[in-house]
Amino acid sequence: MPENYSLVNDVIDQIKTLKKNGHEVVFYAQEGCKGEGIDCEMRAVLPHFRTIKNEENSEAKEKMIEIFNKEFKDVDTVITHDLMYLRGYYTHRMAIMQCGYEGKWIHWCHSAVGANLKLKMAHSKYIYMNYADTKRFATSIGVDLDDVRVVFNDKDARLFFDWNPISYEISEKFDLFNRDVMQTYPMCSTRMNAKGIDHVIRTFGKLKSLDNRVLLIVPNANARKRGDDIEAKIKLGEQCGLTKDELVFTSTVNPDWTGGVPRDVVRDLMQISNLFVFPSSSEVCSNVLLEASMTKQLLVLNKDFPPFFDFGEEGRTCLGHHFGSLIRTGFKYRTEEAYLNLAKVINQQLLGSKSNQQFLKIKQACNIDTLYRKQLEPVLVENY
Question: What is the pTM (predicted TM-score) of this model?
Answer without folding.
Answer: 0.91
